[in-house]
Amino acid sequence: METLDAFIIDVNDVFWTWLLIPLVAGAGLWFTLRSRGVQLRLLPEMFRVLKDKTPQGPTKDGGKSVSSFGAFTISAAARVGTGNIAGVASAITLGGAGAVFWMWVMALIGAASAFVESALAQLYKVRDHRAGGTYRGGPAYYMERGLKKRWAGVLFAVVITLTFGFVFNAVQSNTIRSVTSGSLPGGDSDWFPAVIGAVSAVALALVVFGGVRRIARVTTWLVPVMAVLYLLMGAVVVVLNLGDVPRVFGDIVGGALGLREVAGGAVGAAIQQGVRRGMFSNEAGLGSAPNAGAAAEVTHPVKQGLVQSLGVFFDTLLICSMTAFIILTTNPELAGRQGADLTQNALTDTLGGWAGHALALVVFMLAFSSMIGNYYYGESNIEFITDRSWVLPTYRSLVLAMVFLGSLGSFSVVWNLADVFMGTMALVNLLAILPLSVIAFKLLDDYTAQRRAGLDPVFTRDRVPGLSGVECWEPQQRTAAGDTARR
Hints:
Amino acid/polyamine transporter I, 2 strands, 1% strand
């Protein structure tokens, strides 16, 4: 196992240092410049569109369409997970406090990548008639319909299914086992990981067999509850250690720029861990959130692009930052610990033993909601590849098996393997959205022109000349939807 882990680490170091980090950062900077800083310029607009009501009535099977907020919570369910607790802790352990600075930087420029990919996903979405007329879409669809390269879409669909459905869900269950082992009776027993894995798999099975609307319903209330609970605990820790906050900022900035040595704190390690763990957490440019964004019923593709950009800020600048301050204000000596147990010990040191148990509950909620979102990403992309009736039940069974096995695996191997798959997925997606971004910026120009005219923007595919491969956004239907939204 150690030999395998060492090999995966070597692959990651080369892959991320020489290919992924330059590509991720370069694409984010280009999208930021080309959009004139859409992620900051239209920040108030993000909050406005998040509250938009679903403009269309019931779908063909009588159910409600997925709202913009519902799609936001599906993607937030996958974003806000163990990466915010275990991932941030791991980044700080391996890259020093400076890794947090680079997570912030990547969130600020990565939000532009999130905007581009989610706006494109909305534009090229399709009706899923097997699911009562709801929408589905994502990178596989804009690769096929926008780039006219179905093979690229199939490649991405396979990679995201393996990454999210299997590997990332193994990461989630592994972290659940890690934090609950210190909070539940028998946590140090040989049988404990198997029990936790089985419980996690059964709980997930009860949700995933209900379809995308049940996923949206569950995550709509689960994500805000878990986020608020965790933020409240973190805020108490920071207030109790308020005098250490200036030192923490100094460690973060100094470690990022090489001015201080903190834990693993070389600048290269800080950058690499900050980018990796930042991408794992907020998924900007990764190609995952667009699968949820495409499910929303909105009047303009840009609206969902803005909502998903807001999700990056929500995840990294709020949730991840809270984890960093919990750790760095209470436990600056980082050697010898990794993952969620570092965060757990930091909370326990400040608030007492009850906080460790509370975090175990929060981690379970975070990881469980992430597994729901991860599962949906795989399902959406399997439907892109094939419509054979036996495939989805088989996929669901394999997902549940990986949740169980992830609980039994090694922390290091599971997380390092996740980096390999995540990097591959980002590579395929970014190479697709770079040429397609010109269309996303045309959508943005149309949106801002309508807003300047005092309108609630409504898009129809004839508003951008030369568009092809667009199945939805018919002029008559979208105009009617816009009238409904305005009323």
